[in-house]
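Anyone have tokens for TIGR03086 family metal-binding protein? Sequence:
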Amino acid sequence: MDNVIGQIDRALDATSVIVAALGDSSLAAPTPCREWDVRTVLNHTVGGMHVFAAALSGTDSGADHESDWLGGDPQGAYAAAAEVDRAAWHRPDALDNTVHSSLGALPASAAALVHLTELVVHGVDLAVAIGRPDLADDELCGELLATMQSRGGIDQFRGPGVFDAEIPVADGEPGHRRLLGYVGREVLARTP
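Reply: yep, here.
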């Protein structure tokens, strides 16, 4: 299970590169995550990082998942949240706990996979939204996709607000495209 912590680290790092590429004008750009612009996806991601970190450490996050976590400094907010999030997952007992989330009480190992999914998918959502899918970690996207499929898939989470129906994507396509197709993102026609 230490591998998932390493994957979370990689997702935090990859998404930080994407967040660094965001300009003020891109915050209102539409994303593959229906009805959410770049700012909303980034805010949701940053909020999730704080919420998961608090749940792992048994503290209060100080705000709701969808509160305004970004303020006037989206990049700074992401960097601060990534630091808190990384520290929480690297606690010696991080994977021994039960994490209480919007999905209910989860073993920390399952919560780690949920969190990894949010980081990777929303990172790719941001990269695609700003026309920089080249910043996506295709290897990590492929690893996450393989993990999802090996654990029985995500069909129980398909539906409004989570994942849409799978969109077929050829096996030879880059990892970010295959992952987006699997979670039902409809942007594939404009994503290299």
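The longest strand covers residues 98-101.
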